[in-house]
Amino acid sequence: MREVEVVVVGAGQAGLSSAYHLRRAGLEPDRDFVVLDHSPAPGGAWQFRWPSLTYGKVHGMHALPGMELTGADPARASSEVIGEYFTRYERTFGLRVRRPVDVRAVREGSGGRLSVESSDGTWATRALINATGTWDRPFWPRYRGQETFRGRQLHTAQYPGPEAFAGQRVIVVGGGASGTQHLLEIAPYAAATTWVTRRAPVFREGPFDEEAGRAAVALVEERVRQGLPPRSVVSVTGLPLNDAIRRGLADGVLDRQPMFDRITPDGVEWEDGRRVAADVILWATGFRPAVDHLAPLRLREPGGGIRMEGTRAVADPRVHLVGYGPSASTIGANRAGRAAVRDIRRLPAREEPAVA
Length: 356
What we know:
Distance between the termini: 23 Å
Number of strands: 18
Helix content: 10-25%
Order of helices and strands: EHEHEEEEEHEEHHEHEEEEEEEEH
Mean pLDDT: 90
Strand content: 15-25%
Structural class: alpha/beta
Largest sheet: 8 strands, mixed
């Protein structure tokens, strides 16, 4: 059992931002805090993104605090550009990220500390910054007949790039940014594409200014304040109507269909009898927060989410969720990391054990 002031779980944008602000506050890596990351290399979830997602296609990548990302080739894969950037960042600020380390559970410890159980041993800590994101929890909806489908089903998390769908009939499910990007990439290669979503997509005209951004974040923040599962910021902002989207609408690639009612062995079917044959169903249906290791702390509210005040879990002020809900964006993660560290520095020297 090793004792530290803070354990940071996750070394994506949110975790590295938090670690940077801990260092600025005078805490030393490996002595006062540790960063535990289960990924094999620096880069957070970016290192797992599909090769065709080039840096030029990345929407709203904001630099980490204290080091700009400059001179990146927009034609290079984002996984390479951001992986190299995160590597430089960790080395420059001496963050000493421990990897690969799996955090299995966070429990009430002794003396008012939390006990963080991991593949690297157990840590006793005064505070926890959870920055685990969502990539490890892809959401797979369940539909009648899904197990009978004879073709291939895969999720955005497994997307290999458009060439893998050459000559195939592909159904893309999901109305977010990934779904539209996948469709526009796959269409030139596939024999046919069909786009289905639960709700009609909302396309946003004009610039997305600071005021609109604050309003969108406020809507997401209100949900977590009520203890409801967070929605993505994109779900309340709509999709930007850029040139690629306009072309997709004009040529019929982005011809949205309502959600099908059942999956058949060779495709999908609606209640009115309409059918579409398919070789592949690609679920671009998003992700859920990766917080199962926090279950022993019983942070969840009856509504299914973790009620938050800022970055702090209301049920346990020692736990901060960064990159969760309203801070699940690159700029939001930077700000949340700073706010979490500021709050943690105000914790008393010794906390009383949490009431069960």
